[in-house]
Structures are given as C-alpha cells and as structure tokens.
Amino acid sequence: MRKKGFTLIELLVVISIISLLSSVILSSLNSAREKAKVATARQQARSIVQAIITAQGESGKTLISLAPTSNAMHCNSACSSGSCVADRANTPNCLAVMKTVLTEIENSTNGIVKGLSNIPSDPWNYAYMFDSNQGEFGLPSCGNIDGFWVVAPGHSVPNFPTIPLNPKCP
Questions:
Q1: How many CB atoms lie within 10 A of CB 139?
Q2: What residues make up the domain containing 119?
Q3: Number of helical (H) and strand (E) elements in the chain, helices listed first
Q4: Are residues 131 and 144 in contact, defined by beta-carbon separation less than 8 angstroms?
Q5: How many domains would you assign to the chain?
Q6: Over the Cα atoms of the chain, what is R_g?
Q7: Is residue 9 assigned to a domain?
Q8: Alpha helices in the chain (DSSP H)
Q9: 7: helix, coil or strand?
Q10: pLDDT tens per residue across span 100-141
Q11: How far apart are CA 44 and CA 108, in angstroms?
C-alpha cells in the first residue's frame, strides 16, 4: 500500500516550475516599469519644450536669454560634454541647476506655465540637460539648435522632443 503525499522529486519539480514562472513575470514587470519611465520622461520633456516655446513667444528671447543657467557648462564647470556630464548629472549641483533653469523658463512665461519647476528630475533621478546654443555668440549662432536631452546612463528615450529654433533670434 502506498502512503498518501508527494515524493521529493514531485515537490522539486513543482518548486522549479514556480520559480521559472516567477522569473518570467519579474522580467516582464521590469520591462513594463522601464517603458513607464520612458513615457514619463517623454511627457515631462514635451511639457518643458512647450514651456520654452511659450516663453520664447512671450518674450521674443532665445533660451540662453530666458534661462542664463541653461548652458550645460553651468552644471559642472570642469565638465561640459559626453560621459563626464552623464557621470555628474545626478549630483545635487546638477539637479539644482536643472531646477533653476525650469524656474527661469517658468518665470519667463508671464504666468502662463505653472508647475514646471516641480519636476524634480528625470525618472532615473538624473537632471535633464540643457545646452543653450542659439544666439549664444550673437547673430552668427542664431542657426545653432539648443540641446536638451536625457543623460541617464543606459537609458534612451525615442522620439524625445527637441527645442525648435526661435525665429526672433537677435
């Protein structure tokens, strides 16, 4: 007569199936979480670009005139491009500079845009980077596009909005 219950092999098979299923579920959950962060970054970027367009329309100024701290070099004066900026974009200094830039842009809209300065960082806790190029060196640089990007290492945001050229460049 056979005893009631499960054998050790049967229990091990069930445990291995459960662990395999949980690993598949966790990996898809991480993928969904990353997609949500990308969507959040894209939406925040659209809001920022729309605020810049509004501020430029209200004042007729370029980004560097609206937000003097919008040049990437203000984030870390010893480091202004490439992976060096990415390495420092999550420092308190860079996050404070980003908040200052957003506040300057918000203030330049004459009260039309509110809450922009409440964006603490991108979804990966890095600062959005600004590099104001249009009009930076006067009239000859009016065709230079202002930079605005995500620098969180290993993360990209497809269809990230860009800052259009201001037709009223000095």
A1: 9
A2: 38-149
A3: 4, 2
A4: no
A5: 1
A6: 24
A7: no
A8: 8-59, 63-66, 82-88, 92-107
A9: coil
A10: 888 888 888 888 888 888 888 888 888 888 777 777 777 677
A11: 18
